[in-house]
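Help needed: design a sequence for this.
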């Protein structure tokens, strides 16, 4: 089970949506063609290139220009980062941020609203109450967190009357720490959906030139897919049921990412790739 019936096994992220490239509608069409119905964004995305809220606004224009599409996707966004502060999960800010995201996205309801990063100056009981207010208002379907440690999640859950249904860590062969820091174990224990950001290591996996690159290339050849598909599938193979968020803005690479579903793993191959990633043999 996942947090939303329309959430696909691979998501498409818009943190680079405002960068130059193909027309935005070509990207959204490629994502739909690839079977990606989970669209992940955040109010901070696009700030460096086009201003705060720019990615949400552009995604909202795309939804406007594709009538009916909203009813066939799971729409997720995040709030809680404010340039120059940098984190603010106070009730006043988050409720205002939610309203602003709804306006920019041109929707009446967000399927998943996530706290982007932990604000250490907001008590977990205050945040839990705020998230409950969001869901009670009908403007948010489900709530989750991003970049939270298991201990931080535990503190929030202790006060939450609204279930925390998702957690979004950085997780990839380049950054396998969630295997060891309790993030994935906690998610499985609590029945949470894991959304992995930067599952290709911010593009670094495609350009690595060491043992990891050799192992990725060999497995890609065996499976008849590209290296990115192998790396995405490695993340998806974990029993937590991880949903990788693909950040590519190239329509062709978005379509090819769907090949991750074709990969078949043996334990030997999965662990061989992990050993290549961490640079040592497992004990």
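Sure. Designed sequence:
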């Amino acid at each position: 089970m996942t947090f939303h019936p329309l959430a696909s096994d691979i998501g498409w992220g818009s943190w680079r949506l405002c960068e130059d490239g193909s027309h935005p509608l070509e990207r959204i069409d490629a994502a739909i063609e690839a079977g990606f119905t989970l669209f992940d964004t955040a109010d901070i995305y696009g700030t460096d290139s086009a201003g705060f809220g720019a990615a949400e606004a552009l995604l909202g224009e795309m939804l406007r220009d594709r009538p009916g599409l909203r009813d066939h996707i799971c729409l997720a966004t995040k709030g809680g980062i404010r340039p120059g502060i940098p984190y603010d999960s106070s009730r006043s800010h988050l409720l205002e941020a939610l309203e602003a995201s709804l306006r920019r996205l041109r929707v009446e309801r967000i399927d998943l609203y996530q706290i982007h990063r932990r604000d250490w100056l907001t008590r977990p009981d205050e945040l839990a109450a705020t998230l409950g207010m969001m869901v009670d208002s009908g403007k948010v379907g489900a709530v989750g967190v991003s970049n939270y440690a298991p201990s931080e999640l535990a503190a929030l859950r202790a006060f939450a009357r609204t279930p925390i249904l998702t957690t979004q860590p950085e997780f990839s062969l380049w950054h396998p720490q969630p295997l060891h820091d309790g993030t994935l174990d906690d998610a499985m224990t609590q029945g949470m959906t894991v959304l992995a950001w930067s599952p290709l290591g911010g593009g670094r996996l495609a350009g690595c030139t060491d043992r990891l690159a050799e192992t990725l290339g060999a497995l890609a050849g065996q499976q008849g897919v590209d290296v990115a598909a192998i790396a995405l599938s490695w993340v998806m193979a974990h029993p937590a049921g991880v949903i990788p968020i693909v950040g590519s803005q190239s329509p062709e690479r978005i379509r090819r990412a769907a090949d991750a579903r074709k990969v078949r793993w043996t334990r030997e191959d999965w662990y061989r790739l992990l050993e290549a990633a961490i640079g040592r043999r497992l004990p």
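Residues 11-203+240-261 form a domain with the TIM Barrel fold (CATH 3.20.20.100).
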